[in-house]
Batch of 2 targets.
Target 1
Amino acid sequence: MRKTNLFFKRLVDIIGSLSGIIFLFPLFIITAIFIKNTMPGPIFFIQERVGKDMKVFKIFKFRTMKVDEEAERLLDWSKDEERLTKTGIILRRLKIDELPQLLNVFRGDMSLVGPRPTVEEQVNKYTKHQMIRLRMKPGMTGLAQVSGNTSLSWEKRIKYDIDYIKVFSIVLDFKILIKTIAIVIFGEEKFRKDIIN
């Protein structure tokens, strides 16, 4: 049953990501023009992340912060708030900055749903149990993201990701996708109830 679910998961990823790229292409163009005219630097933020089975890939996002090569190289998140632009705030609130990851999904680096991919420096700090998080492809959204996201501790987010991997099903994926859309539209406060409890 799990193999069947994984087969359909990849099928949904291909159809969903390709449909999203085609349907949202005009939004991609408008966003790119908006970024180019409101902040200096490249339109896309590209960074190496760790995926399934420790496979390293390059993730794509629309840039939301001013360029700071040293901070990006050293993974210095302390400067994020001062680097975030007004355009970036809007893109993040509506999750538009994440949409280029549809390319990652179509390529097979990521899935629509799964644990969010992180950098190698964080993965190197995982315990043996936390390494379970790397048994599935990372996702554009996931159980941790619809259960509190950044309001949760890092350890709690990893726990949600491991719980997702243990009980994964296509039905659960669709529940997470629907809840993600609802949170983007209405805000997180209205959707506090855990999906798998």
Note: The CA atoms of residues 48 and 57 lie 5 Å apart.
Target 2
Amino acid sequence: MKYNIYISLPQNAKYILDTLHKNGYQSFLTGGCVRDCILGRSPEDWDIATNALPDEIKSLFPKTADTGIRHGTVTVIIGNCKYEVTTFRIDGEYLDFRKPQSVTFTSSVENDLSRRDFTINAIAYNPEEGIVDPFGGIEDIKAGIIRTVGSPDKRFGEDALRMLRAVRFSAQLSFSIDKSTLNSIEKNCRLIEYISAERIRDELTKILLSDNPLCFSLLMDTGLIRYTLPEFEPCFITDQNNPYHAYNVALHTLYSAANIEKDKILRWTMLLHDIGKPGVKTTDSKGIDHFYNHQLLSTRLSKIAMERLKFDKKSMDKILLLIKYHDMQIKTDPKSVRKAMSKIGEDMFENLLKVIEADKKAQNPKLLQKRTEKFTKLWEIYEDIRDKKQCTGLKSLAVCGDDLIALGIKPGKRIKELLEYLLERVIEEPELNKKETLLGLLCQHHGTK
């Protein structure tokens, strides 16, 4: 079917297409950039496919890099921009459910498109020939459907990560997954075990950072959760019969993720903050469910999950800290807020407020108005403390260890104890945070000179 679709190209991408065309080669935009342009979205990358061989591509452009030369990919570098240009290819046999053992170059763009994962990604375009869409990708875009190119069993048997990519595209584009494709994911879900932890983590993160983190429930529906994040699976079958809650643990968790900004640290915190609840659930004589100390088990299980998924240590430490204190009770008075800031750390307190607020918003909607009023007050108090630069940590204390040593106090544990004492006093009374005042307090109450 012919489509009268025009795609506005960035100057560099047009230059690459034109250069290939003028030298007698076919070239097309392919994959996600074509899909996103049709959807009216801004592409992150502009990938180009051509019948030119890698050495021929390299001969036409002054600066290139052999980023995937074995599979026909050359990166063309123009200024600070990089564009992947790949020779039309047919994939060889897949033996490990991850990548082809070999590739064969072809002169046909249709053959190249036939190896792609989903119909919405198997569309090509250039200004001369327009749209090339041999598998009905545009119709699926119009219908909002994720469908594999050809047999879903074959596609997922080639690269098992495509099962997670289907869920990710569903979340990012607000598309539904074709029934036969969904059934195939359920049938083949265990193949995801062949995929590296890093690639699984990155797809899970993209799902979480989408506009529709509730699509995470598709991982449960298809069985993928068992092989990607098994710690979360019990949350789907753990009810919360409690006046403060309206959803089971999983739904509450996913709603809380949707309530917070699209930040990797914050959304992973919301996903994992209650995974300890199934393991500590108790029910009292009135039939009310309780989850005492769940934050401790959530922290431990989250550490196990993130280590398996190869999270970097810096991200892990931030997420675990927020999970540990996500249930912290903070009164709406300046002293309580300063104490909380001191405990969690000045640099992380704002994120903790966001986490607690998102958590509460995903509980019983009937309690939301009262809690919203409390959070408005908490934010006002926090912003006042921040604007006044009141001290809530040792870094902003008006004295340091060297000042105490100058008083004749020997370096060691005593220095730390005295600084913490002074910090406690300053948190109680911010106006005390002056060097002379604090040193005077030490002389008065600890006998220092």
Note: The chain has 22 helices and 13 strands.
